[in-house]
Design a protein that fits this description.
Layout lengths: L9 E6 L3 E6 L16 E4 L8 H13 L4 H8 L7 E8 L14 H12 L2 E3 H8 L5 H9 L3 E8 L5 E8 L2 H4 L3 H8 L4 H13 L8 H4 L1 E2 H5 L6 H10 L2 E8 L17 H14 L4 E6 L5 H14 L3 E5 L3 H15 L3 E4 L5 H13 L4 E4 L11 E7 L17 H12 L2 E6 L4 H8 L4 E5 L10 E6 H6 L3 E2 L2 E2 H12 L3 E5 L8 E4 L16 E3 L4 E3 L6 E3 L12 E4 L3 H11 L5 E4 L9 H10 L5 E4 L12 E6 L3 H4 L6 H13 L10 E6 L5 H7 L3 H15 L5 E10 L2 H18 L4 E6 L5 E2 L2 E11 L5 H16 L8 E6 L3
Parallel strand pairs: 10-15, 10-16, 11-13, 11-14, 12-13, 14-15, 17-29, 20-27, 20-28, 26-27, 28-29
Antiparallel strand pairs: 1-2, 1-3, 4-5, 4-6, 7-8, 7-9, 18-19, 21-25, 22-23, 23-24, 30-33, 30-34, 31-33, 32-33
Length: 802
């Protein structure tokens, strides 16, 4: 296979006696492995590489930097449909003869044999379905021991192109000028067949352009038309008047009706664009600090056009799938079929099609969420990371626990590309790099056109409660402003950073609170599904009618989430059309797009949502934003809590008053003296940055140190505590420069039945031996796990935790 094997191609390799996997060729050499028995290639799958050399380089860097295996990175990178694996199948033993069988067979075994007499092979899944049980392996094992069947492995290629059935006229009818007229004369007594032919000629006017017949029409166009007879269509196919054929088509067809448009820049935007290009002449990375509504997207579009004119590819990263629908619509008007979209809501086949489109060069611009950094770019010249401050760029589980913003910077470095980071509220680390001159810094502090920043007003909920001005969770001021907007046919966004109906329920008589069986958290109440649900492991159960501790029926909900806000608002404002946008309402593939489309078309007056409504959405008719419970975001045990709270408040405020209308933001809080609110009202990011950077320097947090979080897990609480203590001791012995903190029991100390302990390592930013530190951490973990009492300890390493 020497001439068939190449770097970046997939090959079939056998592991063990039966298991077969597809693998990526990372290197071709002539040094046989010394430490283990070589695996032999069984088959070469691809004729051309599916993974490029720059990808292999970034995969290796990620494995080393984020302290995981190369296999874990590749598993996360490749769409599932490109990862072939074997599925066990059974077939009749070649030597088996029914008439010579001496074994007594059970009814289930007889069923399996009968099925194998009707078809040559069965998968394990098919056997389970046949017997209608998940405990079917014992019957397979029994038949194996009796030497009646054998097991083998079959490789399944998961990707399948989209195929459509089409119909067209028999070409002979077009070769002779009078043939069609003669056909119509023959069918004069069969009007239904004439209708089908007339419809075909109307949709594909072959008499004007005979080449149109070669393309044909989707058969579905004929069969789904209620005016056409299905039997007439079939009759024409049988006679050979129409012929059916199949065609492979793209899952991302180009909409010819979308006219490509230009988005001319204002003088202010043109100035920002020029500054960015000037910085790119001497620096690889630029931070664009542009307030909400300043027109950053138009600047991005112009820079993308500039990169494409130079022949390069562009990656445009977004933090959330929710943003793609709006931005893709705008970009499609500019770049048409050169634009590809990539995110997790796509099917496996759709993702492979985008992967192949990037590989072939069909897609020169890709808009995607964090996973799109894995795509096979071969000539990347620009990466744009929009809303670069967002924690959504961080992958938490499983490994690799990467931050797409950091990987994008390294990816650009490997390709020799430029990176533009954009945000109205940059992360403190990014702003620090820009202020120190490591990156370029361009500021846009005016809104586009006639739009102005919204007016912000604080409402003291404690004072409102004393005055009896609170209507459930809404102050009189907020309700009054919402009603005013509804009268003016303007729109409202309400932000509450918690989904569900209520965080928990409790018994008024004994205080009982339902807890998750697997996690150390209370169960949240979801009214729509009438169930209690754990937001950590997914456990759910029906809402109880009475307290299981004392039997009382006096159960009440405590706190509130987006579902409750929506519910109460429908009672308070029955005339309003209200929609909710959170994880529960956006599970389906097109749910995001539908909610956004309804809001854009003014079919919805009030949009209630979690963080999803804070991110980059652009609605011209929104004139009011309400933040229902600001305190829950600020008072959080995390060194980034204030930075995140400021960012969230500013981002959601930025949805108001974007197209010339004066917007208003109402923040409900029990602590109006909190300094962050003043900075939000003045839109003073610089003041927030100075406060945060001073705190972090004083206490040793990023950007002055690098953090590594080690989470120790065990099903037994004592073993977890002892394992964490031993590991912390081992790390302190091995690491001289870095500071080892902990172990510490986290606020939520049990998730999915595993008890947790955390160790934090602070690595000085200028510490030369970061690579060596990680090696020592890996050795310390390995040494602890070799001890018999800790062999079941699970250790998770998170580099640069968000």
């Amino acid at each position: 296979m020497n001439d068939q094997v190449f770097v970046g191609g997939r090959v079939i390799v056998q592991f063990g006696a039966k298991k077969v996997l597809s693998c990526i060729v990372a290197a071709v050499h002539e040094k046989p492995p010394a430490g283990y028995q070589a695996k032999y290639l069984m088959e070469v799958i691809d004729e051309t590489p599916v993974v490029t050399p720059p990808q292999l380089r970034i995969f290796s860097w990620m494995a080393e930097y984020y302290m995981c295996t190369l296999g874990e990175v590749i598993n996360a990178a490749l769409p599932a449909a490109l990862k072939l694996s074997s599925e066990s199948r059974i077939q009749m033993h070649p030597a088996y003869r029914d008439e010579t069988n001496e074994w007594r067979l059970s009814a289930q075994e007889e069923k399996i044999l009968y099925a194998l007499s009707q078809q040559p092979t069965l998968t394990f899944t098919e056997v389970g379905n046949l017997l209608q049980t998940s405990h079917f392996h014992k019957y397979i094992k029994s038949l194996l021991l009796k030497e009646i069947i054998i097991i083998f492995e079959e490789i399944a290629e998961k990707y399948s192109p989209k195929v459509v059935k089409k119909v067209r006229l028999n070409q002979e009818l077009l070769n002779e000028p009078e043939a069609l007229e003669k056909l119509f004369d023959e069918l004069a007594s069969k009007p239904k067949q004439v209708d089908v032919l007339m419809y075909y000629l109307q949709k594909a006017p072959v008499h004007q352009d005979p080449n149109l017949n070669f393309k044909g029409l989707d058969k579905n166009l004929l069969t789904s038309n209620p005016r056409l007879s299905l039997s007439a269509i079939n009759s024409l196919l049988k006679k050979g008047v129409l012929e059916q054929f199949e065609q492979i088509v793209s899952r991302f067809p180009v909409d010819d009706s979308v006219k490509q448009m230009a988005f001319p820049l204002s003088e202010y935007q043109e100035n920002a664009r020029k500054q960015i290009l000037d910085f790119f002449a001497e620096k690889d990375t630029v931070l664009l600090h542009g307030i909400t509504g300043s027109g950053k997207t138009e600047v991005y579009i112009d820079l993308i056009k500039n990169a494409l004119e130079g022949g390069g590819q562009v990656l445009y990263l977004l933090p959330e799938i929710a943003l793609t629908a709006q931005i893709v619509g705008r970009l499609m008007k500019v770049f048409g079929d050169r634009l590809g979209v990539y995110h997790s809501k796509f099917s496996d086949n759709e993702r492979v099609e985008v992967w192949n489109g990037v590989l072939s060069g069909r897609f020169q611009v890709v808009v995607g969420v964090r996973s799109s950094i894995f795509l096979p770019f071969h000539d990347l010249s620009l990466i744009i990371v929009d809303e670069e401050h967002e924690s959504s760029y961080k992958q938490y589980d499983p490994a690799p626990r990467y931050n797409a913003r950091e990987v994008a910077l390294m990816l650009a470095n490997f390709h020799g590309a430029k990176t533009l980071l954009g945000s109205a509220t940059p992360s403190v680390e990014s702003f620090y790099n820009a202020k120190n001159g490591r990156w370029g810094l361009v500021t846009m502090n005016k809104r586009f056109g006639t739009a102005v920043l919204p007016e912000t007003e604080l409402v003291d909920t404690r004072d409102e409660q004393k005055r009896k001005n609170m209507h459930s969770h809404f102050s009189a001021k907020l309700l009054e402003e919402i009603q005013e907007r509804l009268k003016r046919e303007e729109q409202v966004i309400l932000f509450q950073n918690r989904r569900g109906y209520a965080p928990y329920i409790n018994c008024n008589d004994c205080g009982w609170i339902p807890k998750c069986k697997s996690c150390a958290v209370s169960l949240s109440f979801h009214k729509f599904s009438h169930e209690l649900r754990c937001h950590y492991c997914g456990f759910h159960e029906r809402m109880p009618h009475s307290c299981i501790a004392c039997g009382s029926t006096d159960l009440k909900t405590v706190g509130f989430g987006t579902e409750k806000i929506e519910d109460e608002l429908k009672i308070l404002l029955p005339e309003a059309n209200i929609q909710r946008m959170d994880l529960d309402t956006t599970k389906n593939k097109n749910a995001f797009q539908q909610i956004i489309s309804d809001f854009e078309a003014n079919r919805t007056n009030v949009l209630v949502g979690t963080q999803m409504v804070t991110k980059g959405l652009d609605f011209e008719n929104v004139s009011l934003v309400g933040i229902i419970n600001a305190d829950s975001i600020i008072n959080y045990p995390d060194f980034r809590a204030h930075e995140r709270a400021y960012s969230m408040f500013v981002q959601v405020s930025g949805r108001a008053g974007r197209k010339g209308k004066k917007g208003k933001v109402i923040i409900q809080t029990g602590n109006v003296a909190q300094p962050i609110f003043q900075k939000v009202m003045e839109n003073d990011y610089q003041a927030l940055y100075e406060m945060e950077i001073a705190e972090r320097q004083l206490h040793g947090f990023p950007p002055f140190v690098r953090l590594i979080k080690i989470t120790v897990k065990h099903l037994d609480e004592k073993a977890c505590d002892e394992g964490a203590l031993h590991l912390a001791g081992e790390l302190k012995n091995r690491l001289a420069g870095p500071m080892v903190l902990g172990p510490e029991t986290p606020y939520i100390f049990k998730i999915r039945n595993y008890f947790l302990n955390e160790i934090h390592i602070k690595l000085p930013r200028n510490h030369a031996s970061g690579k060596e530190t990680k090696q020592q951490i890996a050795l310390a973990i390995e040494q602890i796990k070799q001890q018999p009492e800790f062999k079941n300890l699970r250790v998770v390493v998170d580099v640069d935790p968000a």
